[in-house]
Each structure stands twice: as C-alpha cells, then as structure tokens.
Amino acid sequence: MAEQNLVLILVFLPFLGALGASTLPSDARNAAAWLATLTMAAGLAILFGTYDNVAQGEVLRGTISWVPSLGLELTFRIDGFSWFFTALVLGIGILVVIYARYYLSKSDPVPRFYALLLAFTGAMMGVLVSGNILMLVVYWELTSVISFLLIGYWYQSAGARDGARTALVVTAAGGLCLLVAMLMLGKIVGSYDLDRVLSSGDAIRAHPLYPAVLVLFLLGAFTKSAQFPFHFWLPGAMAAPTPVSAFLHSATMVKAGVFLLVRFTPALGGTEAWFLIVTGAGMATLIVGAVVALFRHDLKGLLAYSTISHLGLITALAGIGGPGAILAAIFHIANHAVFKASLFMAAGIIDHESGTRDMRRLSGLMRLMPFTGTLAIVAAAAMAGVPLLNGFLSKEMFFAEAVDSQNGTWLNGALPWLATAGGIFSVAYSLRFILTVFFGPAPVDLPKEPHEPVRWMRLPVELLVFLCLLVGILPALTLGPIMNMAARSVLGADTAYYDIALWHGINQPLIMSMIALAVGSAIYLIFARQIAEGPEGPPLFYRIRAQKIYDWLMFRLSWKWPRVMSRIIGTEKLQPQLRLLVLLAFFAAAAALWHSRSLEFGPETTPVAPGFALMWVVGIACAIGAAWQAKYHRFAALVLLGGAGLITCLTFAWFSAPDLAVTQLLVEIVTTVLLLLGLRWLPKRREEIAEDKLLPAQIRRSRDLVIAALSGLGIAGIAYAIMTRPVISNVGNWFLANAYYEGGGTNVVNVILVDFRAFDTFGEITVLAIVGLTVYSLLRRFRPTSESIAAPEQQQVTSSAAFKDYLYVPSVIMLWMFPVLIMISAYFFFRGHDLPGGGFAAGVTLAIAFLLQYIATNVRWVEARITVLPIRWMGFGLLVAGGTGMGAWIFGYPFLTAYAQYINVPLIGDVPAATALAFDLGVFAVVVGATVLMLIAIAHQSLRAARLREQEAEEKEEARQAGEAA
Amino acid sequence: MEYVMSAAIGILSASGIWLLLRPRTFQVIIGLCLLSYAVNLFIFSMGRLRPGAPPVIPKGGFVDATAYADPLPQALVLTAIVISFATTALFLVVMIASRGSTGTDHVDGQEREQ
User: Fold this and answer.
1) Is A667 in contact with A844 (CB distance < 8 Å)?
2) What is the pLDDT of residues A377-403, one digit of tens each?
3) Structural domains for chain B
4) Residues 537-596 in A contacting B (C-alpha not used; CB under 8 Å)
5) Among its keywords, does the record have Isomerase (chain A) (predicted)?
6) ipTM of the predicted structure?
C-alpha cells in the first residue's frame, strides 16, 4: 500500500511542481529554480526508496479507479526498466534545472520555463510508468505538446516558432499513428493493460493485422526518436534554449521512441519484418546522422545530428533484439544521455560566454576556458567511443551484436560494415568539435570575450563528465546491476546476468573500434579545410534537405491546396449555400422515404370544418402575398406576414393548444414591431429595376420556385401521412398522468416546461439572454449609412407644430394601458401552472407594456420617467432560475428537481407554491429583459441617427462660419 | 381537416423557402418567419389534430390520457416560438448592421456582378 501511494505521488509530483512554478511572479528566478530542484530531488528520493523492491524483480503499481462502473482505471507501474529510465530523466533533469538557472537571462520569464520543464518531466514519466497503453499514448502526445511550448520558449524568434511547429507536426502525427496502433493492439489482445499486451506476443505476431500494427507503431516511435527520414525536426528544434535541448534531446523526448521500441520488443519484436524495418531504419539513421554531423558548422547542429546518429544506433540494437542487444540498447540510452547532456551544456556555455556557436569562428578556446574545454573534450571523446569512457563500452557492445547477430537476411551480413562506417564518421565529427573549438589560434572578432562560466553553471557538466569516466572505467560496479535489472524486466526474469566488462581481449569489435578511430581521425585531418569552407552538409547531398521537402509539402497541404479546393468547390455567396442546404435536406428526406415506403396516406380522421378551411384560404393568401411582395412592398409584406401569423395562432387555439395561441399572439405583436423598426434602415427600392426583368433573373426565380414548390409538397405530404396515422401511446400520456401528482400543476404544457423538462427550458432562456446581449452589443457599434441618417420624409414635410398632436388619442389610451397590461402579465404568470399562461406569455406581455410606452410617446419621454434595466432583468432571471435549480441540491436531489405544494392565502384561496413557480419567475424575467433589450436597442438607433443629424448640422454651421470669417 | 392543415404547412414552407433563396435581406427575414410558422405547425401536428381537448387536467383523480391533446409537441413549440422570435431579432440586427457597413441590402453585402 505504501509503495502504491509512493508511485502515485511520484507520478503527480512534477505536475504539482509545474502548477506551483506557473503561479510564481515572472521575476522569481531563484524561487522557481529552487521549486524545480526540490521537486526533482523529491522524485529521485522516492524513486531510490523503491529501489530494493524493484531490484528484487517486483513490479510496483499505483491504481486510481476512475470510472469503476466501466472498469476504467488509471494504472501506473514501475518495473526495472521504467525505474532506470525515470531515474535517468530525474537525474539529468535536476542538473538541467541548476544549469538553466544560470543560463537564462534576466529578461526571460523563468518561472514559465520551469513550469514547462516540470510538466514535461511529468509527461515523460507518465510515458515511462503508464500501465495502460492508451494512457501511454495520452502522455506521449502530452510530451509532444509541452515540447512544442519548450522549443518555442523564445517565441519572439521566427526560427523557434518554426522549429517548434515542425517538431509538433511530426511527433504529434506520429503519436496519432501510435494511437491507432495501440487501439488495434488492444483489440487483438482484448485488453489495454500493458502487462497483458506484453505477455501476448505470440498472439500478436500471429495475427493477420500484425504488419499494420507494426508499421503504425514504428511510425510513432520513429518520428519521436527522429529516425531517418523523420529526423529533420530535431535540428530545427535546436532553436530552443540550450537547457531544453540538453534535456529533451539527451534523456527524454527523443528517448521516448527508443524506450517504446525496447519496451514492446516482447510483444512486437523478433520477426523478420521487425528486424528489417527497425534495424534498417536504425542503421540508415546512424550513418546519415554521422555523415551530416561532420559537415555542420553550427555547434548545436553538429550535436543534433550526432544525437540522431546515436538514436539510430539504439534503434538498430532494438531491431537486432536478444538479451545482449537489449542490454546494450539500454546501456547506450544511459551513456548517450550522460555524455550528450554534458556536451549540450558545454555548447551552451561556449555560446553563452563567446556569443557564437559557429565553429568557423570559434578557435583556441582551451586557453580562455581550460576547465570547460577539458570537460567538453572528455565528453566528446566519450561520444567518439574512446576507451576508458562510457561511450566506448556500449559502442563496443553494439559492434559485438553487429558481428554476432545471425539471421540470414541481407541486412545482417552488412551490419559490421555499416556499424564501422557509422563509427568512423562519429570519430570524425567528434574530432572536428574538439579541434576547431578548443585548439588552433586564439579566436578573433567574437561577439563576447570568452571566459570561464560561473561555478554553478559548470557543476552539472562536471558531474556528468565524472559519470562518463566512472562508468567507463568501472562499468560492472556502477551501472552493471541496474542495467541487468532493466534488461530482466524487459525480457523476463530468467534472463542471464550479463557482465559488462572493459576488456574482452583483442577481438573483432575491438579491431572495428580501432579502425573507426584511425580512419575517422584520418578523414577529418585530411579534409578539415574543405569541410570548414564547404556548405552546411555533405558534398552533393547538401541540396537535398528533408526540411525543404517538409516545408514544400506543408505549404501545399495547409495553404495552397485548401485554397484551390475552396476556389473550386466553395463560394462566399449566401444564395448558393442556402440552395445547397435546402436541396440537401430535400434529397435526404426523399432518399429516406423512398426506400422505407413509410409515406402511406390514410383517410381523413376529422371532417373539414368550413370555418377552418376558410380561415386557411386567407392564411395561404397571406403567405403567398408576403412572398410576392417582400421585395418591393416591404410594408405590405409585413402586414401579410402578420396575417399568416394570426391564422397560425387561431389554428393553435382551434386544436386545443391555448398556451401556444396566447404565446404566438403576443410574440406576433413583438415581431411585427421589431420588423417595423427595422424597415427604417433599409434602402428604397423601386419596381422599375430593369435587370429583374431580364432572362437570367427570371430563370433564377423559376428554378427557386420549383425547389420551393417541391419542398413544400414534400413537407405537406409527410405532415399528412403522419397526421392520418393512428396515435400510438407515447411519453405525452405519461406527462398527462403525472403532471398533477409529480409536478403539482394542472396545465400540463406548463408543468413540462418548468418541471419535467426544466433543464431544456433553462437552456432556452440562456440562449435568449445570449441573443439579447448579442443584439445589444452589435448595435452599440452600428453606424447607419449616410442616406438613412436624414430624417424620414414624413417628418421633413410635416412641421413640428402639426406633428405635436399626431395620434394623440391612441397615445393616451396606450399610456393608460400600462397598468392594465402589468396586471394581465401578473395574471398570466400566476395562473400559468394550472391554466394557460405562464412565464413566457407573462414576460412577453410585460415587454409589450413597456414597448407601448415607447410607441405612444418617444424614447426621451419614456426614459425620463421609467428606467428599465433589461440586463439586470436578464441577470436576475438567470440567477433565480439557476438558483432554484441548485436549491434542489440542498435537499439532496438532482439539479432542477421541483417541489410542489398549495398554500391557502386568505381571500385569494389556494395558490400553487411549487418551486417551479420560482423557476418560472426566472423564465419571466429573462424573457422581459431580452425582449425589451432588443427592442430598445433597435429603437435607440433613431435617437442616434437624430444625434448624427444634429452633429452634421453643427459641423456645417461651423464650416459656414469659418468660411465667413475667412 | 388534415388536408387543409397539410396544405397550409406545405404552402407556408414553400413561400418561406422561396423567400429564403431571394437576394434581399428583408425577403430572407420574412421567409424565415414564414418557415418558422410552418415548422411550428408541423411539429404541433405531430400530436394529431384534436379540437376541444386542451391538456389542462383536473386536480387529482384518474387522468384518461386519451381524452386530452398531446402536451409534448405543444411544450416543444412553445419554446420554439420564443426562440424563433429571438433569432428573428438577431437576424434583423445583422441585417441593419450589414446595411450600415456595406451600403446595400443584398445578402452577400454587395450587388450581383453583371
């Protein structure tokens, strides 16, 4: 149990640290560095506390049950391999944290850096200790995302942004492939549990989907580990601050890919396809990386390609498989992390102290910074594979595996030659690094005068180089047990103990090493001048850059082709889009009905009432008339629209829907007023537009007429078919039967709205409030066109004296109606639960009461007397509705559970006192607020136009006076 | 009655759709209003046509569900009426703003190129 908690603490610790660091002020350099150091140190302490258990072959687990009903659990497991890897990540991490404190300048937002670094550590550890393969992919993608932020830390520079984006696109795309691979693995195995997957290797390899899984899985691993041809993102990522490079490209990010390869060897490895693809890609990367590294002039560029090359070496080992190769792979993961981290840090120091990373300008630094120089030379020698250093040992083991591996494929025979070739070039570029930077004449014309860095900046490098030596001289005493523990946890407990020794006698691997050292030195010494003067890249090949191909492709994928597509199949015009939508709906409905043959027309169930038929003759005439007149006679169209609306309202009343009739009638009034207010801002249109009579316009109209007629016919057909079907028992019956007992109201429609389906209504009023606010804010910035600013014709002609008594009697009546309408509104509201009415109807009624005051007088008169604060109404309404809903929580019920009770009020009688009534009050307030807000906002535009008119007149007057004065 | 009702729904929606495809903003707004009448009536008619049976039940006692009109389509349409008012208002404002900033009432913000 204690171990379980320790595992969970370990997993969440970096994220907690990240959260803490992100809240620090941006100049808290020391606090952030301390926080990060202590977090990493605490992680390491926990990890070492578990060493004894893990060393005995125990697998520590921490489990959080997430959705127990679905069997979803977050499982974390630490075995030997993930223990070793986590220790490596935290160990290098703590050194990077110290180093970064002195590397970053005062102007950098340091806490952000540490927060990201800690979060990245957390994500990386998540990859390492996930016990579920899907969770592993989640952490995997998290490392991609956070590395994007880290690489782009100096987001002011275009190089950093591009590098970060490339890294994200490549690694996240690989992550998606990995996700698919993991899903398929889960399907094959029947579980997403890592242990189950790893133990089902035979079943996976025998499955017909194995090749697909393998390819997708390797795409994920190769993109992350920068294997050829996906290697190009890594040099671009060198735009990151050097501590980031030292962390991401030595111990963490890129190592996640090889971690995955080693981890899944039992499940996916051991086949010929695995060997050919993985070892093939690894060897290709080893050689390409080593060759290109030799020709890079940028220090970090050289190190980046060297990293690619070493990752290729590890990948090749994972492809070869078998106990020796896996152990060598793990050993090289550790060794490479140690010497590459120290080299990146040393490069950072050189850059930091001299101001350049260009090897053509650097020279003879040994005299100016002897300590750093010595450290870097030792680390570079480890990179080259010089004996007595850690890099030598694992490279030797790699050579041995290349020689020993026997499986009869063509690639197998070539392995020793390829390995030696890679070794030769890695010696050559290491030598170039040492000789050009530290030896030769004293440097001239550097941006800064180089000198030794502060003590604490060099300390991490010292420690790492000390490790290089220690492991290189005493491998069996230092890393031997841990390596064997890690290999055993990958390959099984019965794996034989492998003794890592410095001296195996003079054998083939040693001869290969010697050849590599000799030939590599010779190549560099002979061609040093040509390399320094040549282009950045191998001769002939420097023109072919994967980065260029990537840019070419991305430009087309994300910019050119989408635009071409949008030009061909897209349109910015509204009419074709709407036509397409209507046609799509029509054909979708037609296709659905064609096959199902469900469009059966029954006989009429109710005889035609002549009154109803006559009513709709008028209604249909109104509808067609509105459509006919909407272009040239807007006012007529508006009146006809109102007519159609009234007939609709009567229809609701006719067929037993009093609530709908009331609401429709009220909304009809508000809509008409609204559109009337809008008419004022539209341009004048005369009937004699010649273009409308032309053939193309007529063709357009006829085509739309056909579409409209067909759609109308279709809708009519569907409506008739459904109406003539017998009623089947449905949920409506349940509402009828339970409205009184459960909802405490007799008006079932209202009970549904405020009780049974109150959550829907809550959503609706929220939408209403949002629309109200949108209308309001849209109109705040609105400027009418110049031709609409002028006062309307009628107002210009009539003198103001005649205008004074305009519609005097109606306006007095409207003023007197104010209290009456408030009364009606209250009446609708209170009877709503039992009889037709309710919050919606009451709200619109009150809005109409306000509106009438505006119509009866004018904006200034009304606003001097009544202050309506529509936004407060809406806010109050939403709070009341939401508060009523949350009130149910107090009694332990779900959101919006209503409670119903009748209270006897003297004189009035039984009053329904359901909490639904309070909810309805919220609905009421929101409806009032939103409606009034919209109408007033539009009405105020006239006021604004008047103000603009006055302004213009004043300006003219001023201009005239100025003219006269001149 | 079903004949009349379905004809009404059909013609309301046909007028609405025709207007929806027109180039002037005011035509489109009238079209949307007509279309919302049609859709509301359509949804309402899913509960069948029942004259004289409003879903207002007595207090207590047994409720014979077949004696009342279906309340569910009515509840759906009630909110739809209010929301369609809100969207009409929103569209009207967009129409006014577009007219103010582009100087035309064409739906594309510019007159058709001839």
Assistant:
1) yes
2) 999 999 998 888 888 988 889 988 888
3) 2-51+67-102 (1.10.287)
4) 572-575, 578-579, 582
5) no
6) 0.95
